[in-house]
Design goal:
The structure is a single chain. With 352 residues, the chain is of the alpha+beta class. The protein folds into 3 domains: 111 residues, Efflux pump adaptor protein, beta barrel domain (Elongation Factor Tu (Ef-tu), domain 3); 55 residues, Beta Barrel (OB fold (Dihydrolipoamide Acetyltransferase, E2P)); 130 residues, Helix Hairpins, CATH 1.10.287.620. It is built from 3 helices and 14 strands. The strands form 3 sheets. Strands 1-10-13-12-11-14 form a 6-stranded antiparallel beta barrel. A 4-stranded antiparallel sheet has the order 2-9-7-4, with no helix packed on it. The protein has a 4-stranded antiparallel sheet with strand order 6-5-3-8, with no helix packed on it. It is rod-shaped, with a radius of gyration of 48 Å. Its main location: membrane. It is found in: Membrane. This is Membrane fusion protein, multidrug efflux system. Keywords: Coiled coil, Membrane, Transmembrane, Transmembrane helix.
Length: 352
């Protein structure tokens, strides 16, 4: 009786084991057929990630941070102030440049007034030249006349000498008038040259003022586009240097795309504009659509920091990957849950 019971149990165990083995075999056969069908109909890869433009926040000015207006993972709009740097030194430099510019403009105004005065004086000297020339001509005529009278003994030697002295004085006055006129013209030229120097200083101080205003604007860092801030690593009162990276912004205006790294044996029939199905690991069962917009001109290893050199003698053939860029279809709301770095599976239809 006991042996019969054991025989019945063994028979049921054998039967159940056979059923389970058959079910597993059928599952394996079905999985194999499905995999074979998918391999024949689709090109698929799970070596793919969501990508967005991620740019660093870089300070162009140094100093102590006086205000931080963002938190980690916060959404920001274009023009929002991210942080403010102590701007007292920049403000003082700007005021110094403004004062220097004002001083140069005042000097230019004074020189312009001097030029006008010197030009007026040169006109007076020019008039004096005419008067001296007329006087010299009269004295020359008087001297010539008394010379002839002296020759015929109609004038005394004293009168001739007096006219000769008057002629010499008139000639000297004429020369003085000429020299004064030349001197006044030289002064005008010198003052105009000084004007050019001051004008150059004005341009220099204008450029310096613009630079100081630019430096002052660098003390306020704003969001360059609609974005989302990443990790915050700065605090109020912290000292930063020009060129220092203060955080990272995820650009929400440029859109999202997928970089799918297909094997080189899979890209033969791919073309720009081909539709793709995208499955995100973060959203099982939810489908996303995309479109191929470009294929990389080289394999990923060719763009690496140290590309492999196959001529060294240790060559091992490895299937290379070609990055394929796929733009997500739909509105930003449709793809709102997809974030940069998420793993996805990309499927392309071979028949299309």
């Amino acid at each position: 009786m006991q042996n019969k019971t054991h025989f019945t149990i063994d028979r049921w165990i054998t039967r159940i084991t056979g059923i389970f083995a058959g079910i597993i075999l059928l599952i394996l056969i079905g999985w194999g057929i499905l995999s074979l069908y998918q391999g024949m109909k689709y090109e698929q890869t799970n070596d793919a990630q969501i990508q967005e433009y991620i740019n660093p926040i870089i300070s162009r000015a140094g100093g102590f941070i006086t205000k931080v207006n963002f938190q980690e993972n916060q959404y920001l709009k274009k023009g929002d102030t991210l942080l403010v740097i102590d701007n007292r030194e920049s403000t003082l430099q700007q005021e110094q440049a403004e004062a220097a510019l004002l001083n140069s403009r005042s000097q230019l105004a004074v020189l312009e007034s001097n030029v006008n005065s010197l030009k007026t004086a040169s006109l007076v000297n020019k008039s004096q030249i005419k008067a001296a020339s007329a006087k010299l001509l009269k004295q020359q005529q008087d001297y010539n006349r008394y010379t002839k009278l002296y020759e015929v003994e109609s004038a005394t030697k004293q009168q001739l000498e007096t006219n000769k002295a008057n002629l010499d004085v008139a000639a000297a006055d004429y020369q003085i008038a000429l020299d004064s006129y030349k001197t006044s013209l030289a002064k005008v030229n010198d003052t105009e040259a000084q004007q050019n120097v001051v004008r150059a200083d004005i341009k220099k101080f204008q450029a310096l003022l613009q630079r100081n205003r630019l430096d002052l604007s660098y003390t306020v860092i704003q969001a360059p586009y609609n974005c989302r801030i990443g990790k915050r690593s700065i605090e109020k009162g912290q000292m930063i240097e020009p060129g220092q990276i203060l955080g990272y912004l995820v650009n929400k205006e440029a859109g999202k795309w997928v970089i799918a790294n297909y094997k080189e044996t899979q890209v033969n029939n791919m073309y720009i504009g081909e539709m793709a199905r995208i499955d995100a690991d973060a959203f099982p069962g939810e489908k996303f659509a995309g479109r191929i917009i470009s294929l990389s001109p080289a394999t990923g290893s060719s763009f690496s920091l140290l590309p492999p050199d196959n001529s060294t003698g240790n060559y091992v053939k490895i299937v290379q990957r070609i990055p394929v860029r796929i733009e997500l279809e739909g509105t930003p709301t449709d793809n709102a849950g997809l974030e940069a770095g998420m793993n996805v599976t990309v499927t392309l239809d071979k028949d299309k």
